[in-house]
Design goal:
Blueprint lengths: L22 E4 L5 H4 E6 H33 L18 H19 L5 H10 L13 H24 L8 E3 L4 H5 L6 H6 L3 H7 L19 E5 L18 E8 L1 H4 L8 E11 L5 E4 L2 E5 L15 E4 L13 H7 L5 E5 L27 E8 L4 E2 L10 E5 L10 E4 L3 E13 L17 H12 L9 H6 L4 H11 L4 H5 L1 H12 L23 H22 L15 H7 L6 E3 L3 E5 H23 L1 H13 L6 H12 L3
Antiparallel strand pairs: 1-2, 2-17, 3-16, 4-5, 5-6, 6-15, 7-8, 8-9, 10-11, 11-15, 12-14, 13-14
Length: 653
C-alpha cells in the first residue's frame, strides 16, 4: 500500500472567483445572438442595467410623442383649422387616458353582464360630459397611451432580466488567461493535483454520500445524461457471474467539452459506460501458505508473482468454497480482520500509462479486448448487520451474539472473508458532423477508441501538412482539425480524470480510503444499508457519480495551472488559444453575464426612439413640411410627367 496522503484543500464552489475573466468573451456552444457575453461583477452589472432601464423609460416618453404625432395626422380634427400648432400634439398621456376612460368604461359595461343595470346607465350617461373644448375627439389616444405604458413596463422588467440571464440561475463564467498558468508545466503541479484529488469525496460526504442529496449541484454546468439498465448477460466469459443476479450498467452520454467545463469550438463528444456484476472469486483463488491469494494476471508456466498491484493475500481459504467448508467471514470477524476495498489490478498496473513493452494480460475469465476489466474486492472484517444481507457483495447470514452483556441481541456477520464485483469500463467517441450513419467509434478500452477517433479526424489531411503539422493545426478553422486540437488538449485528460477505475484505484493506493458509502450511523462496523438485497448497485452508482464530479473538478483546475503540456513546437498564439487556462467555464454567483449583442440592440433601438420622439416634439411644423414634400414628390414610374416638368423648367419660352 502506498503512502497515505491527507488532502488539505476544502471544497468551495467559489474558489475560482479570482480567476474570472471580466470582459467580453464568446461562448461557443450557444447561438450567435446570445454567444457574446459581457462578464461583470454583480454591482457593476446592476449599474449597467439601471442605465438601460432609465433609457427604456426615456424611450417610453418619446415613443408617446411619436405615436401621438402619427395618430394626429391620421385622424384629423373636425374643427376649423387655425394658424397655430395642433393642440393634440401637446396632449399628455394622462390627459389622453382620462379622456378615453368613459369609452373604456362603456366597453367594459357592455362586456360584463354581471354589473347592475343602474350602474351601467349611470356610467353611460355620465360619459357624455366631455367638454367641447377638449382636444381629444377619439379614444384611440388613450388606448394607445395605455398600450405604450403597458408595453414599456413589461420591457423594463423583461429586457434586463433577459440580458442578464436572470431566469437561468447562477451564470457560467470563463477563466482568464494568466501568465503563471501559461508558463507552468504539469509536472510542477503533481502535488497540487494529488492534494485536490479527493474534493469530490468531501463534497458528497456533506450529503452522507447520497447521490440525490444535491451537494454536487453547484459544480456541473449542465445536467448529465445518465441511463441505468440491468442486462441479463454476464459481462465476462466462463460464467463467473453469480446466477440469477443481473448485471448493472450505467452510462453517461454526450460528454462534450461543455459538460467537462471547457469553452470549445470542437463538436467531439464522448460516452462512458460502466458494467458491474457480482462474481465468484474461485477462478482467481489459489492456496498460499495457511491462507489463499487472489491473483488476476493470466497464468503461465512461471510461478505466481505476488504483488500488491496484481494480487491480494487472504488469511483464510475464503470458504465456504471448493477449498473449505469453513465460514471465512465468521473467522475473520473473530480475528478482527481488515475491513477495506481493493481494486485488482491496482494502480497503475491496470492502465499501462507508461507504455510498458508488455501490457498486463489478465486471467482469461477477466480479460476483454473491448474494455478495461477489473475486480473490486471487499474484505468484510468486523462488518455486522441487524438483518440478514442477501446482497451478494455484502452477503451476511451468520447470526452471532456480538454483545456478551446482551444475550437478546444478535447481529448478522459476513459469509466470506472476501467477495468481489467484476467490472468493465468502456469509452466511445462521437463526431456529429461526420457524414457516417453512425458518427461514433465502437465501445472500447480507454486508449483504443481515442486513437480511432483521432485517426478518423486526421486521415483526410494526412498528405497535406508536408511534415509541418504545427502549421496545419494552427491555421485551420475546419471542424475536423479543431477537433484534433481538442483531442490533444482536453480529451487526452479524460481517462485518468473520469474513469471509475482510476477513481477507485488512486484513492485506495494513495489515500487508503474505504470507498463504501458512509454508514448512516456513527458506529463504523454496524452498517445500516439502504438496500439489504442490492446494496452493491447503490455503491456502484455512487462511485460513478463521484468519479463524474471528480473529473469535472479536475478539469476546472486547468484554470489554476497546466494540466497537460502542449507541444512546444506550436506558436505562442496557439498555446494561448488551446491551453485550458483561459477556456475553463464554471458557475459563480458573484458575477453577472450580460448579452453583449442584446445590450447594444436595446441601446440602439431605444436611442432611435428617443431621437425620433425628440424630433417630433421640437420640430413638428418642419416634420409636417417634410411629409408634405414626400407626398407631393413625383413617383419614379411617372417618366412623362418628370420629362415635361424638366422641359418647362429649362425652357420657359
Amino acid at each position: 500500500m502506498g503512502t497515505s496522503l491527507v488532502p488539505g484543500v476544502p471544497p468551495s464552489p467559489n474558489e475560482l472567483n479570482s480567476y474570472v475573466f471580466n470582459g467580453v468573451w464568446k461562448r461557443y456552444d450557444e447561438p450567435y445572438f446570445s454567444s457574446l457575453k459581457w462578464t461583470l461583477g454583480n454591482f457593476s452589472a446592476l449599474l449597467v442595467m439601471a442605465c438601460v432601464t432609465a433609457l427604456i423609460a426615456l424611450a417610453q416618453a418619446q415613443c408617446w410623442s411619436l405615436v401621438r404625432y402619427i395618430i394626429t395626422h391620421h385622424k384629423k380634427s373636425t374643427r376649423l383649422e387655425s394658424s397655430g400648432p395642433d393642440p393634440l400634439l401637446k396632449l399628455s398621456q394622462s390627459e389622453a387616458i382620462a379622456a378615453a376612460m368613459p369609452t373604456i368604461a362603456r366597453g367594459l359595461l357592455n362586456i360584463s353582464e354581471r354589473l347592475p343595470r343602474r350602474l351601467r346607465v349611470r356610467l353611460c350617461s355620465g360619459s357624455n360630459t366631455q367638454s367641447q373644448e377638449e382636444p381629444v375627439e377619439s379614444p384611440i389616444f388613450g388606448l394607445a397611451s395605455l398600450a405604450i405604458i403597458t408595453l414599456f413596463i413589461i420591457m423594463g422588467f423583461t429586457i434586463p432580466w433577459g440580458l442578464t440571464e436572470g431566469a437561468l440561475g447562477t451564470p457560467i463564467v470563463k477563466s482568464r488567461l494568466t501568465g503563471d498558468c501559461l508558463d507552468s508545466t504539469s509536472s510542477g503541479h503533481l502535488l497540487d493535483i494529488l492534494n485536490r484529488a479527493t474534493r469530490a469525496d468531501e463534497i458528497f460526504s456533506l450529503c452522507r454520500d447520497e447521490v440525490t442529496g444535491g451537494c454536487d449541484t453547484p459544480y456541473p454546468l449542465v445536467d448529465p445524461v445518465i441511463t441505468k439498465t440491468r442486462p441479463t448477460t454476464c459481462p465476462f466469459g466462463g460464467e463467473i457471474c453469480l446466477p440469477d443476479v443481473p448485471s448493472f450498467e450505467i452510462t453517461h452520454w454526450n460528454i462534450s467539452p461543455l459538460v467537462m467545463g471547457v469553452n470549445s469550438r470542437s463538436q467531439v463528444s464522448m460516452n462512458q459506460r460502466l458494467t458491474c456484476a457480482p462474481i465468484t472469486i474461485d477462478p482467481f483463488l489459489w492456496k498460499y501458505e495457511d491462507g489463499s491469494v487472489i491473483y488476476v494476471p493470466k497464468l503461465s508456466s512461471d510461478p505466481i508473482q505476488l504483488s500488491n498491484n496484481i494480487s491480494l493475500i487472504l488469511t483464510t481459504l475464503n470458504g465456504p468454497n471448493k477449498f473449505s467448508n469453513e465460514s471465512s467471514g465468521l473467522t475473520m470477524f473473530t480475528e478482527k480482520g481488515p475491513f477495506d476495498l481493493t481494486v485488482l489490478p491496482g494502480y497503475t498496473a491496470g492502465t499501462n500509462y507508461y507504455n510498458l513493452p508488455e501490457p498486463l494480460i489478465l486471467n482469461e475469465f477477466l480479460q476483454r479486448n473491448d474494455s478495461q476489466s477489473f475486480l473490486v474486492v471487499l474484505r468484510a472484517g468486523l462488518s455486522q448487520y441487524t438483518l440478514p444481507m442477501d446482497d451478494p457483495f455484502f452477503s451476511a447470514h451468520n447470526k452471532k451474539n456480538v454483545y456478551p452483556d446482551d444475550t437478546n441481541t444478535s447481529m448478522y456477520i459476513a459469509d466470506y472473508e472476501a467477495t468481489a464485483l467484476g467490472c468493465i469500463e468502456q469509452f466511445q467517441y462521437c463526431f456529429p458532423p461526420s457524414p457516417l450513419p453512425v458518427p461514433c467509434t465502437n465501445w472500447g478500452a480507454r486508449g483504443s477508441e481515442f486513437s480511432a477517433m483521432l485517426e478518423y479526424l486526421s486521415y483526410q489531411y494526412s498528405g497535406q501538412y508536408n511534415g509541418d503539422i504545427h502549421s496545419l493545426l494552427e491555421h485551420s478553422t475546419d471542424q475536423n482539425l479543431l477537433s484534433v486540437n481538442e483531442m490533444f488538449s482536453l480529451f487526452r485528460l479524460v481517462p485518468m480524470n473520469f474513469a471509475i477505475y482510476d477513481f477507485l484505484a488512486i484513492r485506495i493506493k494513495y489515500y487508503e480510503m474505504n470507498l463504501l458509502k458512509r454508514p448512516k450511523r456513527v458506529v463504523e462496523y454496524n452498517r445500516w444499508p439502504d438496500d439489504y438485497k442490492e446494496q452493491w448497485i447503490i455503491e456502484v452508482e455512487t462511485w460513478f457519480m463521484k468519479a463524474l464530479l471528480g473529473g469535472i473538478l479536475a478539469i476546472q483546475d486547468g484554470a489554476l495551472y497546466t494540466l497537460r503540456d502542449l507541444d512546444p513546437g506550436f506558436s505562442e498564439a496557439y498555446l494561448r488559444e488551446w491551453k485550458l487556462c483561459g477556456r475553463i467555464l464554471f458557475h459563480s454567483p458573484d458575477f453577472t453575464n450580460i448579452n453583449w449583442l442584446g445590450l447594444w440592440t436595446t441601446i440602439i433601438a431605444s436611442t432611435v426612439i428617443v431621437l425620433v420622439g425628440a424630433l417630433v416634439d421640437m420640430f413638428p411644423e418642419r416634420l409636417e413640411d417634410w411629409l408634405n414634400l414626400i407626398r407631393t414628390a413625383p413617383t419614379w414610374g411617372d417618366d412623362s410627367s418628370r420629362i415635361e416638368e424638366y422641359s418647362e423648367a429649362d425652357n420657359p419660352i
